[in-house]
Write a structure and sequence with these properties.
By secondary structure, the protein is mainly alpha-helical. It has two domains: 30 residues, no CATH class; 129 residues, Four Helix Bundle (Hemerythrin (Met), subunit A), CATH 1.20.120. The protein has a two-stranded antiparallel sheet with strand order 1-4. A two-stranded antiparallel ribbon has the order 2-3. A hairpin with a 4-residue loop joins strand 2 and strand 3. Helix content is 58%, strand content 8%. The chain contains five helices and four strands.
């Protein structure tokens, strides 16, 4: 049976086989993966949004970078909701549903909820004011750091629960 390994260890080759170096941590086999393509697709969109946010920040496009960082957090949280087939009608619903199902139960720390609320507030500020320069470089950088934390935490949850063997960006 073929298994995935944490941190994609280098392979030692033998005559008839390839196997991970000693000490590599087995996390899940292909046959153990749970089927939930929607959760994995949302998570991949989170990673892509974060990558886009970082590129936009480096180009000095802070408002656009902030928007992408918000969506990085949003898609990561959405992927967690999809593991439980939880739907929503609006982005504000996501905040409450995430809190009720993942924060209050202790699956995730309240920091993730705070990051989601902060990101939502910044995005609302962009939407309400809509003028260039509404968000500073520093606030955008903070949000990108928060987005990375949310993505890493939700990604670890998805791997632990058997929805992913690796982050999509690692493949």
């Amino acid at each position: 049976m073929f298994s995935f390994w944490k941190n994609k260890p280098s392979i030692q080759s033998g005559r008839d086989r390839a196997y991970p170096k000693p000490g590599a941590e087995r996390i899940i086999s292909m046959t153990e993966l749970k089927e939930n393509k929607e959760a994995v697709e949302s998570f991949k969109k989170a990673e892509e949004s974060l990558e886009g946010s970082q590129k936009l920040l480096s180009e000095g496009l802070y408002d656009f970078s902030t928007s992408r960082a918000f969506f990085a957090i949003f898609y990561a949280v959405e992927s967690a909701l999809k593991t439980r087939n939880l739907g929503y009608k609006s982005q504000t619903d996501v905040i409450k549903i995430f809190e009720d199902n993942f924060i209050k139960s202790g699956i995730f720390s309240s920091d993730l909820q705070e990051h989601l609320i902060y990101a939502f507030a910044l995005r609302k500020k962009l939407k309400d004011f809509g003028k260039p320069g509404a968000i500073s470089n520093e606030k955008t950088g903070e949000l990108i750091t928060m987005a990375r934390e949310v993505i890493d935490t939700v990604g670890d949850y998805l791997k632990k629960e058997g929805y992913m063997a690796y982050y999509p960006s690692e493949l």
